[in-house]
Design brief:
The complex is a heterodimer. Chain A is α+β, with helices and mostly antiparallel strands. Chain A contains five helices and five strands. Chain A has helices at about 1-15, 55-60, 95-100, 125-130, 140-145, and strands at about 40, 65-70, 80-85, 105, 120-125. Chain B is an all-alpha fold. Chain B has one domain (about 65-315). The chains are: A alpha+beta, B mainly alpha. Chain A: It is found in: Cell inner membrane; Cell membrane.
Chain lengths: ~170, ~325
């Protein structure tokens, strides 16, 4: 009986406590930089696409919302011919970002992507590509990759030695 | 002619209070749960009442094909009708009272018991097992709590010597009956909560076990009638508590009598909502056990002691 009265009293005291409601459209919470929201495709410092079309994101995706087709340009540089994310399926788990070997696909702190038409939630490559390097500024995959894809000559990359002349006996 | 105006005025005020309580309840409940509640439509969100009512009007008024049609339709009207009838004897001020019957309290008890018909008929006519379970619980709860509800008020009647609510309020000029009958007040209030099926005693509805209890099958304005009936019931119990134990319209003269009455009633309405915010629902058998084994003997003891003291004092 006493505990009931105490409960009533304690509940009454909550009248004088601050409310926890955040009045969303006017007040917004601060989203952290690593908050997992809308998915974007970033570019390298030279403005080229980072995505190399390896399909690892599409494989990692638990809801199969990513579809892409890889292709190559005349220099042998791989890029996606199309890149499509169906955000009406996406669960924002971030596995694609984990899987991406070139830091191309990234999740950014933006969740306000409501649409009246479901079809508008299917984002094509031009909707996904942003003119930014995202969370990894300065990273350019083809600068550290061993191959020549029109970005640098073979053996001229960072942390890379010149190719060994296999016809020479000299060290 | 004046009677007609009083009746219409009381009806108008009551129905508006019942509708306004939608907003009051949701806002206050939110405050007590550290939320904000509806605050978008209109100033402080008060237009939620309008929105809710319009929504109820435009909802499909569905009568299930397996239901007993006429009983199903009549049941929601019974609860509102019986509660509104009880307001006949409530003295808002010495002048504003529809009819100061000399069986006042008995009339109130009779009418509030009639309200159980709406639950039983509604649950029965719905032809649905959950509704029927809710209706059964409602009926037995009402019978259990009706008994000592009447008995808890008899102490006040004994001290006044009248069933008339006007006389009872006037008898509290020197001292409110809450001082002389504290146990009566507590018992009456507990019975009142059970009578209006408010939380924590909303076992006939018990949405966690019985879908929505006796009004599971109801929609649209028929459900709205049950809703209004519940809020009117809260107002009724609060008004009767104020009139019986807290001096009704009596108060200092800087406020008019009706303002005192409404102020006091409002405090009790808020207490009803506070109870909803704080207490969990007891199990059904626990409720019945407390009713018959603890509260009824307490009410009888209160009655006996009050009678004995009244006899002693009068000599």
């Amino acid at each position: 009986m006493f505990s009931h009265i105490r409960t009533i009293w304690l509940t009454f005291l909550h009248l004088f406590k601050r409310h926890v409601t955040i009045q969303y459209p006017e007040e917004k919470i601060k989203l952290r930089p690593r908050w997992r929201g809308r998915i974007v495709l970033t570019k390298d410092p030279d403005g080229g696409e980072r995505c190399v079309g390896c399909y690892l994101c599409a494989v990692a995706c638990p809801v199969d919302c990513i579809a892409l087709q890889a292709t190559e340009d005349e220099n042998g540089r791989r890029y996606p011919e199309f890149f499509r994310i169906n955000f009406s399926r996406c669960i924002f788990c971030g596995y694609c970002e984990d899987a991406c070997p070139t830091y191309a696909i990234q999740l950014i702190p933006d969740f306000e992507m409501a649409e009246y038409n479901r079809q508008n939630l299917v984002f094509e490559k031009e909707d996904l590509l942003i003119n930014s390097q995202g969370k990894y500024p300065g990273y350019n995959f083809y600068k550290v990759a061993g191959m020549n894809a029109g970005v640098k000559e073979k053996g001229e990359g960072e942390n890379e030695d010149a190719p060994v002349d296999i016809h020479s006996l000299m060290p | 002619m004046q009677h007609v105006w009083i009746v219409l005025g009381v009806l108008f005020v009551l129905l508006n209070i019942a509708a306004g309580l939608i907003w009051v309840e949701r806002r206050m409940l939110a405050m007590w749960q550290d939320r904000l509640g509806p605050n978008r439509a209109g100033p402080l969100g008060i237009l939620i009442v309008l929105a809710d009512t319009l929504k109820l009007f435009f909802k499909e008024d569905w009568i299930p094909p397996f239901a007993d049609k006429w009983v199903f339709i009549v049941a929601p009207a019974v609860v509102v009708g019986s509660v509104l009838m009880s307001f006949v004897i409530i003295p808002f001020t010495p002048q504003i009272i529809v009819s100061d019957l000399n069986v006042g309290i008995l009339f109130f008890l009779a009418m509030s018991s009639l309200g159980v018909y709406s639950i039983v008929l509604g649950g029965w006519a719905s032809n649905n097992k959950y509704s029927l379970l809710g209706a059964m619980r409602g009926a037995s709860q009402m019978i259990a709590y009706e008994v000592f509800m009447g008995l808890s008020l008899m102490g006040v009647v004994m001290l006044t010597g009248s069933f008339k609510l006007g006389d009872i309020v006037n008898a509290q000029k020197d001292m409110w009956f809450v001082v002389k009958q504290p146990l009566g007040l507590i018992l009456f209030f507990i019975a009142g909560i059970a009578e209006t099926h408010r939380l924590p005693f909303d076992i006939p509805e018990a949405e966690s076990e019985l879908v929505a209890g006796y009004h599971s099958e109801y929609s649209g304005m028929k459900f709205g009638m049950f809703f209004i009936g519940e809020y009117l019931g809260i107002t009724l119990i609060s008004a009767v508590t104020v009139a019986m134990f807290f001096g009704g319209w009596l108060g200092w003269s800087f406020l008019p009598p009706w303002a005192w009455f409404f102020l006091k009633t409002f405090v009790f309405i808020l207490f009803f909502i506070l109870l909803r915010a704080s207490l969990p629902r007891p199990r059904y058998d626990q409720l019945m056990e407390t009713g018959w084994k603890i509260l009824l003997p307490l009410a009888l003891a209160n009655l006996m002691i009050t009678g004995a003291v009244a006899l002693l004092v009068r000599g």
